[in-house]
Amino acid sequence: xxxxxxxxxxxxxxxxxxxxxxxxxxxxxxxxxxxxxxxxxxxxxxxxxxxxxxxxxxxxxxxxxxxxxxxxxxxxxxxxxxxxxxxxxxxxxxxxxxxxxxxxxxxxxxxxxxxxxxxxxxxxxxxxxxxxxxxxxxxxxxxxxxxxxxxxxxxxxxxxxxxxxxxxxxxxxxxxxxxxxxxxxxxxxxxxxxxxxxxxxxxxxxxxxxxxxxxxxxx
Length: 219
Hints:
- This protein has helices at about 15-30, 50-65, 85-95, 105-115, 120-135, 135-145, 145-160, 190-215, and strands at about 5-10, 35-40, 170-175, 180-185.
- The radius of gyration is 19 Å and the shape is globular.
- Helices cover about 50% and strands about 10% of the residues.
- It has a four-stranded mixed β-sheet with strand order 2-1-3-4, sandwiched between helices.
- Helix 4 packs across helix 5 (about 120-135).
- The protein has one domain (about 5-190): 3-Layer(aba) Sandwich (Glutaredoxin), CATH 3.40.30.
């Protein structure tokens, strides 16, 4: 039974940043048994800070909650931007060049949240992404600013909102028989592994039943 885990995220979200160790461990632990993918879910003004001081307050809170030995950098923050389209579109555009893994989006997140780089600027975001993926920066920028990429980002953001949740990251776990679990704003590993383990156990049971009884009767 196929199981898919989708991580809905915004590249500049600090809570998404804190979830990355759990995401990496999930991919390692269930390699070959579970399919993993990420999709952009843009934050709008309702989920963004209104000042650098407010951003710092949030960073202190989340840093304490995660027992972090470092504080995130707020120098990247620009209160004039209603959304952070550039870094998210660059991360999405990198998929066109074969980078469906995490390296480009993680490079963008690290550049902003740890180094304070101004990734709200298209050229800065594209340069960071290009260095991470060894992609031509001009080609990556052109793809990132294309209507096609923005449409994909808007569509995946709409998918996120259709789930009627508000917190990122959101981990959506689906099975081919229609079972679904949604974790909105959860960044700890344990609840995610408990759910995936349960679904994998169900998969074994379904396979055993099919081996003994075959396909269900059509009538």
